[in-house]
Amino acid sequence: MNKKQNNTFFINTLIIIITNFVVKMLGLINKIAITRMLGTNGMSLYVLSFPTIMLFISIAGFSLNITISKLVSEAIVSRKYSPKKLVKKSCLYSVLLSFIMLILYLIFLKPLTIHFLKNEDLFYPLLAGAPLIMLVGISDGLKGYFTGIKKMHISSLGNLIEQIGRIGFSLIFLYIMLPYGIITATFFCLLALSFGEICAIIYSLIKIKKYPIESYDNTSGEGKAIIAMAVPTTTSRLIGNFTYFLEPILYTTILSYLGYKVTDIQTTYTILDAYTIPLLTFISFLPFALSTAMVPSVSEASALNKTNSLHYYIRKSLTFCLIPSIILSINLFLFANEYMNLIYGTTEGTTYIKYLTFMFICYYLHIPIVAILQASGYAKKVFITSTIIHITRLLLLVVLSFIPCIGLNSVLIATTATMILGFIVNLIQLIKITKFRFQLSSMISLILISIIGFSVAILLKKWDVHYLFILGITSIIILSLAIWQKLIWIESFKQNFLKRKKLRENS
Fold first, then answer.
1. Domain boundaries, the chain
2. Among 38, 90, 93, 274, which residue's CB has the most CB atoms within a 10 Å radius?
3. HSE, side-chain direction, 13 A CA sphere, residue 320
C-alpha cells in the first residue's frame, strides 16, 4: 500500500471521527435535555415511535449512502459508470420508493397504534415521522456521492449541520409546545428530525456547485448496479428494522399475556432502549466513522484486486475499533452507576451493564466487518446472515419471555446473544473470502495490554481515585502500549508532520 493511499485513508478517518464525536456529544446533550423535559412518559412515546419510523425510512433510504459511495469510488477508478448517472438514478429511485412508503405509512398508521402497539397516544408522534420518509433518501444519496469522491469533510459537515438543525428545532419546539401536553411536545420533537434533514440537503446542494458531478460518456448499467448493491443492503436493513419494529409489539403482547403490567413492560423497554444499550454502545461513532471512511478505499482495493491493501484495511480497522472498546468496557465494568448517572442523570438500567460490557466488544468489531464485506461486493452474504440473525433474535425474544426468571429481561438477552452470533458468522465469512489471517503476536499484545489496563484500573479504584481520572489513566496506558506495539497506525502523523515541516522550511 503506497503512502499517498495510507495518508488519504488516515485523513478521511480522522475527519469523520472528529465530526462524528462532535455529533455524538451534541446528540447526547440533546437527549439529556429531551429526557428531562419530556419525562418518562414522553420518552416512552419517543422511544416506542422510533422502531416504526426507522422501518419505513430504511426502505425509503434505499441504502444510498453506502451504495453511491461504493459505486462512485469504483467509477472514478474504472470509468465503468458515470457518477452523474449514478446520482440522478439513485435520487429517482429514492423519490419513487419514498412516495410509495409514505402512502403505506399513512394508511397503516392508525390501525398500527390501536391494534399492535396498543397505545393511541403514539399516533401523532408517529405521524411526525412522515416527512422524514421523503427526505432521507435524497440526503443519503448526496452524502454518498461526497464520500465516494473522498470529500469526507463535506459529508461529515453535512451530518453535523443535520444534528445542529435537529437539536435547535427540537429544543425550540419543546420549549414552545410543552405547555400543550406531552403528546404535542413529542410530536414536534420528532418533527425536528425532518428539519435537520432539510438543513443537510440544502448544504449538500450548495457544495455540489463547488464539486460538480462528473459525467462519463459511453457508460451503461448504472441502474442495474444501484439495484444490485442497494436491494440486498436495504433488505438486510429492512429486516433489521422490521424486527426492531416487531420487538416492542411482541415484547408488550407476550408479557402482558403472561400477566405483567403494560406500564411495567413499557418502562422496562424504555430503560433498556434509552439508557442501557446506548451506554454500552456509547462510542459506536468510532466504528461507524471508520466504516464510512473505508468504503471508497476498500471498494478500490477490491476492484483492482489489491489483496495486501485489503488486508491492511481489515487489520487496522479491527485494531482501531478494538482498543477504544476495551477502554470503555473496563471503565463501564467498574463504574457503571457513575457513568450512567453522569450521562443520563439516573442509575436505571445499570444492572446488566457490568455483565454485558465485555460482550459488546463484539458489537464494535462487527460494524467494520460488515462494511468491508459490503464494500468488497458481498452484500448478499451479509443480507443472508443478517436475515437469519434477526429471525433468531425474535424467536429468542419469544422463548425467553416465557421463562419466569428472565421475563422482562428477554429483549436484552436476545439482543446480546444474536449480536455475538452475527459477529462470529460474519468474521468467519470475512476470513474465508479475503484469506485474512490474524497475527499471533498482535493478539498476544492485545491480551497483555488489556490485562495491564484492567489491573491498573482495579488498583486505582481500591485507592479511591476518581472514576474520570481512572478513565484518563487507563486510556493513556492502553493507547501508549498499543502505539508502542504498532497496533494503532501513527505513520500518517509522521508523514503529515514531516510534510508540513518541509513546506515551512521551503517557504
1. 3-437
2. 90
3. 25
